[in-house]
Amino acid sequence: MRILYRFKSETTKIRKWECKSNRWMIIRYEIEKRHHLHEGRSHITATLASTGEALTESSTLKDGDCIILQRLPTPTYLQPYVPKEIEDREEREQARAYAAKMLRQTKTFDNEEDFKLEVMLKAEDYIGNWRRKNRKRPAVHPSVYGDGLPPWYECLHCGAKQDHKTEMCKDQKSTFIPLRKRRAPSGIPSSDLRPATEEEARTVAMRTADGRFVMLKRQIA
Questions:
Q1: Residue in 132, 192, 138 with CA at minimum distance from that of residue 9
Q2: Which end is more exposed in the chain, N or C (fewer Cβ atoms within 10 Å of the end residue's Cβ)?
Q3: What CATH number does the domain located at 2-74 have?
Q4: What are the boundaries of each domain within the chain?
Q5: What is the C-alpha separation between 197 and 195, in angstroms, rounded?
């Protein structure tokens, strides 16, 4: 089955996609993977070009349908969790490929089973080394800090660093998202964004590559 699609920001560029399923849920995953959106930073919503009907998880498409896609950021509170599985899988694939390459160059093996076992063990060593080298926080048990807070702890209500726990904050209605988790995904049409207010820039606004703080227009505070 063939469908046509274009992004909302691209008014003239229409792409074709050959898909095995007519379910929008499956087609969306394939398109997100094709455009590298499946890592958790952003996702897409779609409407039928002919009727303007929004597609849902249970929607089905017909051969030749044209859909309009809109790229949106994945909610920030999900970002730390969604990409982790993919990151771990890719890390292991890279480690196995590197281990296989190095072992082929340095050793000879009598049979393939011995080689696979050696690759598996070597890959685990590489993964451990990479994680230790790239660790951003010290690998210590929370009890090391006693009743205190680690230096990197930030309150998710007011943003105070190493001052008090989130559940003890006096301002329970506010929301604070650490700056490192607020990178704006690329590809969102500028017409869907608005400049952030000073308070939004301090707490929850997305930061673009050129340093501007923006919010989606539908997220009016």
A1: 192
A2: C
A3: 3.10.20.90
A4: 2-74, 78-134, 144-178, 179-220
A5: 7
Report residue 218 CA to chain centroid gap. 21
Residues pairing with 42 in the sheet: 73
Residue recorded with tokens 């017909």: 62
pLDDT in tens, 170-207: 888 888 888 877 888 777 788 888 999 988 888 888 88
Give CA–CA dist 168/185, Å, rounded.
32
**With helix as H, strand as E and coil as C, how does 13-72 read?**
CCEEEECCCCEHHHHHHHHHHHCCCCCCCEEEEEEECCCCCECCCCCECCCCCEEEEEEE
Of 160, 163, 157, the residue nearest 175 (C-alpha): 157
- Give the pTM: 0.36
Q: Which residues pair with 216 in a beta bridge?
A: 193
Query: Is the pLDDT at 86 greater than 80, yes or no?
Result: no
Where do runs of H (alpha helix) occur along the chain?
24-34, 82-106, 112-134, 198-203
Q: Give the C-alpha separation, 211 to 214, whole Å.
A: 10
